[in-house]
């Protein structure tokens, strides 16, 4: 308030008004921090792992924003690493499946070949025994 506005207002009333203005400013500050964190958490709960808080907070709340962003970043890295491992496992499983199918085909082919040889061997023995 300008000094002319304080005319006729007691020192006690001036202090009360000043404290009320400071309280209102702090409340506005806190509301903006809570809103920014709530928005980031809502995006995070929707699987947005890039949900950082970009706008700086006032100095007293800035460490909170930095810590939130670090936690979100760490979570993003962990999920990415897990995804990479899962992809590697899927690729490995596919390789094992292909190898198992190939082995199965070869085993079946060898079984048929062995059966044919056994049949030929019997025929040859029978045929040889007749002579």
Query: Tell me about the biggest sheet?
Result: none
Low-confidence runs: none
The tally of domains stands at 1
Number of strands: 0
Distance between the termini: 130 Å
Strand % is under 5%
Helical content band: over 70%
Shape: rod-shaped
Instruction: Round the Cα radius of gyration to an integer and report it.
Output: 39 Å
- SS-based class: mainly alpha
Question: Taking all residues together, what is the mean pLDDT?
Answer: 90
How would you spell out the order of helices and strands? Answer: HH
Number of helices: 2
Note down, in words, how this protein is organized.
It is a single chain. By secondary structure, the protein is an all-alpha fold. The chain has one domain (about 10-130). It has two helices and no strands.
How are the SSEs ordered, and which strands pair?
Elements: H1 11-45, H2 62-130
Entry summary:
The chain has 131 residues and is mainly alpha-helical.
Which properties best describe this structure?
131 residues, mainly alpha, 79% helix
């Amino acid at each position: 308030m300008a000094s002319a506005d304080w005319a006729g207002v007691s020192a006690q009333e001036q202090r009360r008004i000043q404290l009320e203005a400071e309280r209102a400013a702090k409340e506005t500050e806190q509301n903006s921090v809570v809103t920014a964190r709530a928005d980031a958490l809502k995006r995070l709960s929707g699987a947005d792992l890039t949900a950082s808080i970009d706008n700086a907070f006032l100095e007293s709340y800035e460490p909170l924003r930095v810590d939130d962003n670090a936690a979100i970043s760490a979570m993003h890295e962990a999920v990415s690493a897990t995804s990479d491992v899962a992809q590697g496992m899927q690729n490995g499983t596919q390789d094992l499946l292909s190898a198992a199918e190939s082995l199965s085909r070869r085993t079946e082919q060898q079984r048929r070949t062995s059966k044919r040889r056994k049949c030929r061997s019997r025929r040859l023995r029978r045929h040889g025994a007749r002579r």
